Amino acid sequence: MENLIDHNLAEQIVYAVKEICGYNINFIDNTGIVYASTDQARVGSFHEIGREVALQKQKIEVYVDDSYTGTKKGINIPIFYDEEVVSIIGISGDPERVRKYGYLAERITNLLIQEKNLQKTSLDEREQMHFLLTSLTQGNNLGSETIKHMLKEHNLALHSSFRVVLFHLNSQDPDINVAFFEQEIKNYFGKETLPLLTYNYPNDYVALINPQLFQELDAAFKQFADMYQGKLRLAVGNRCLLLQCNESYRTARIALATTNYQENYCDFSDLLLEILFAKLSDKQKALYRNKVLGHELKPEELHVLQVYFQCDMSLQKTAERLYIHKNTLQYQLKNIEKKTGHDPRKFREAALLYLALSLNPPQECLD
Question: How many CB atoms lie within 10 A of CB 314?
């Protein structure tokens, strides 16, 4: 099973499924160990029902949290390959609500498993590019003759460096059209500019670009993201050698996690504190954010804090940006202190507020 579904593929599957249904997803091996999850806190834990699903070879629903070791309420579905259970997909949440996503999760998983095992003989030019980039960004098949042949065919030297650029489409937008965006990306940057580009189901485009060209196109990437604000997020990974592009892909995913559809562009090399937040679960982020900011701050007060920190805690600059008098700003900051118990004008307490504000609130905590 390790050769069929490795950690990278399992992570791709759980995030692809969550993107569609919005619930936390666990990928469990036949021994009951969670080895990929959208809730990082559960990775490596024992999932008793996952083990039972592997033994019984049938779906099991759980209606009460912690009624079994390491198990929360939800549905757990066996994934078959060649008539054998190769893993288990768990969808956390009320079974009555998540049951409808079971078939979808199973279908996505089977499609991605089949895709991984495609052979070069059955690939057309587009599929070959997808196979090549998927192998590079997931660190798979790198020693195979197929990959060596493809690298030579595309004049890709092992000592050359690349950065991964992720174009992430908003699946919640009813007007999103994958084919349209593929054409828009190619039209805007040109096929020659981004020759190493592929589509990752369900809503990512992945490109490899050399660092020199990236420097020239950085402003163009930001402009493209701004053109489709609300529909697209764009994230850039670290610079890595060709055969280490899985690390660039990993850091691009971290950068993506720090964005939203308003602030929709991020370069991993610009991140600092956000790197520390990358492995926190949605629940952990929400717990800290709510503990520091509370539930009483209005959107306009959160905006005041954002501008205040963007202006390096300068009252004069903040007041000018907000088009208000400095005394009015002082009053608003005092009101924020009353509601949160933290004074934004004191460095240590401002640091707590800044960290909480930096944690994008999750859309939904359903685990």
Answer: 12
